[in-house]
Structure formats: C-alpha cells, structure tokens
Design brief:
By secondary structure, the chain is α+β, with helices and mostly antiparallel strands. The protein has one domain: Lipoprotein localisation LolA/LolB/LppX (outer membrane lipoprotein receptor (LolB), chain A, Clam), CATH 2.50.20.10. Helices cover about 25% and strands about 40% of the residues. The chain has six helices and 13 strands. The chain has a 13-stranded antiparallel sheet with strand order 6-5-4-3-2-1-13-12-11-10-9-8-7, covered by helices on one side. The relative contact order is 0.14.
Length: about 280
C-alpha cells in the first residue's frame, strides 16, 4: 500500500519541477506567438551611427576620407611624387579587332598638375614613339626627332591626366572645386557621387564607394577632336592592390558612349625611384 502512494507523489514532484500542472487539462485558446524582436548588436549600432554620420557628410569630407583611404595626404605626397609604371594597353576598334601595345610611364610630380612631368613610351608591333608632357606643353618623339602629336592622341593623353584618380586626390593642389551630388545605390553598391571642377572649368564626376571610399569609376564628357561633338566617357577602376602603402587599381577600362574602347593593365609599378630630368626634354632643346 505504501508503494502505491509513493510513485504518484514522486510524479507530482517532477511535474512541479519542470513546470507542468497536475490539474486536469482544460481546453485553452492558443496564445498568439509574439513577433520576434531583433536585438541590436554592437556591429549594428556602429553601422547605424556610421550611416547617420555619413548622411551629414559634405563634399570636402568625402574627398578627404577618400584621400585617407588611398594612404593619406602625407603618404601620397612623399611616396607617389615620382615613379615608373609598366603595363599593357589594349584598344578595341570599331571593326571588332584589337590592338595591343606595351607602355612605360615615368612621371615626376610638381606643385600641381600643370607642373607635372610625364613621359609615356609606347611600343606597338609596327611603331615605337613617346609622348612627353612638361612645362605645361605636350610633344612627341619618334626616331630621335620631336613631332607634334595628332589631335586625337593629344586629347587621349590629356584626358588620362585630367580625368584621373589623382585629380581628386590632389584637388587642393590643383585649385579644383568640389560639389556633392548625393548618395545613391547602383547595382547593390552604396555610392557617393562627387563632382570636381578644375581651374579650366572642366568637370569630372566621381563614383566613390560609401563603404571603402575607393573611386570605382568616373564619368566625363569631352570632344575627341576639334569640331567633333562631345562624347560621354566612363573610366572604371578595378583590381585594387596595395603598393608601398598606397592603393592602386591594376586594371582600368575606358568606355566611350557605352562601348569599351580601351583597357589598361599594370604589370609593375614602383614609386620613389630616381628619374633623369633629361627624359622630359625635347631633343631640339
């Protein structure tokens, strides 16, 4: 008789411990399941604060953070003041054929872009020549003699120098003005859109990642030659790599009116090397 009462008593104790009632079951209406509330995490809180701060950012602040992402103004001024870049250039012709060439670009920075010295040596299967920018003018050298570059070649050279990443990184030195177009999303990318107007009133629009503050592409309109209508150009910067504490895109794609016309691939690039000033002088000088 004692054993018959002991088991129910133990069962009742277990029900009480685990939270079950030993009272007779009563039909109850189902309790609505509350909507789960997400618990803020430190990462989410930081992102919300960052988004709030970025919503109040101005054009100059976007530019300054962009400069910082490329290595900071002192690092850029010290390391990237001169250098040698070697690579390959691919041109896509309208007939569907491609033309490849190798190039070597040597440069020495001045106080601003107008005082820069740049020499671009190009070698195609049929021709070797150099384009040189110095003392504010552009000329060419072929077979040891100087020549006046064709209008389209001169325009391409100047565009690469004017509509570039460095033009934004050196906006203060060049006396350019900035305006923030806004913040937008394209193809899942959160972007700042920034307009730069140089001293000659020539505009370049930059699309900058709101996450990394790297320049993803730029746009500009320009006439390819005298009397020709203006065309829309897009220059995309891809395959960023770290070079001597600064960031460099190793692949650049040029798009003209929606059609890819050129692609540049860097093979090697070295900053801080000594460059002979005679490389930038005309043979007739």
């Amino acid at each position: 008789m004692h054993r018959l009462f002991k088991a129910p008593a133990l069962l009742t104790l277990l029900f009480v411990v685990v939270g079950f009632s030993v009272e007779p079951a009563v039909a109850q209406q189902p309790t609505p399941t509350p909507t789960p509330q997400s618990t803020p995490t430190p990462a989410n809180i930081r992102q919300q604060k960052l988004d709030k701060n970025l919503s109040n950012i101005n054009a100059e602040q976007v530019a300054e953070v962009t400069i910082l992402s490329y290595g900071s103004r002192p690092v850029l001024a010290q390391i990237r003041r001169n250098g040698v870049e070697r690579g390959r250039l691919i041109r896509f012709n309208t007939d569907g054929k491609t033309e490849e060439s190798s190039y070597e670009r040597r440069f020495v920075r001045g106080e601003n872009a107008e005082k820069d010295k740049v020499r671009l040596d190009q070698k195609t299967p049929s021709l070797e020549y150099s384009l040189i920018f110095g003392d504010g003018r552009l000329w060419g050298i072929i077979n040891g003699s100087s020549f006046v570059p064709r209008a389209d070649a001169a325009s391409t050279f100047r565009s690469q120098h004017r509509h570039s990443i460095d033009s934004l990184l050196r906006y203060k030195e060049n006396g350019s003005t900035l305006s923030l177009v806004g913040r937008e999303k394209q193809k899942g990318l959160d972007l700042f859109v920034l307009d730069l107007l140089d001293k000659d009133k020539i505009s370049t629009r930059y699309y900058i990642s709101a996450k990394t503050f790297q320049i993803l592409w730029l746009e500009y309109q320009e006439s390819p030659g005298a009397g020709a209508p203006s065309l829309k150009y897009t220059r995309k910067f891809l395959d960023y790599r770290l070079v001597q504490s600064t960031r460099v895109p190793y692949r650049t794609v040029l798009i003209e009116e929606g059609r890819q016309t050129q692609e540049t691939r860097i093979l090697t690039i070295t900053y801080g090397v000594k460059i002979d000033d005679g490389l930038f002088k005309s043979p007739e000088a």
